[in-house]
Amino acid sequence: MSIQYIILAIFTQIRSIFLTMKHMFAKRETRLYPDHSVYLSPRYRGRIVLTKNPDGKERCVACNLCSVVCPVSCISLQKSQNKFGRWFPLFFRINFSRCIFCGLCEEACPTAAIQLIPDFELSDFNRKDLVYKKNDLSILGTGKYHNYNFYEKTGVYNQIDTSTKNSAHSIPVNIKDLLP
Amino acid sequence: MMHVNFIHVLSLFCKTFMIVFLIIFCSAFLSFVERRVLGLFQNRFGPNRVGWFGSLQLIADMIKMLFKEDWVPLFSRKFIFIIAPVIAFITSLLVIATIPFDKNFYIINLNIGILFFLIMSAVSVYSILFAGWSSNNKYALLGAVRAIAQTLSYEVFLGFSLMGVIARANSFNLICIVNSQKYIWNIIPQFFGFLTFIIAGLALCHRHPFDQPESEQELADGYHIEYSGMKFGMFFIGQYISLIVVSAIITVMFLGGWNGPFFSGYVWFFLKTVFFIMFFILLRASLPRPRYDKILYFGWIICLPITLLNLIFTAFFILLI
Ligand code: SF4
Ligand code: SF4
Question: Which NCBIfam families match (chain A) (predicted)?
Answer without folding.
Answer: NuoI, PRK05888.1-1
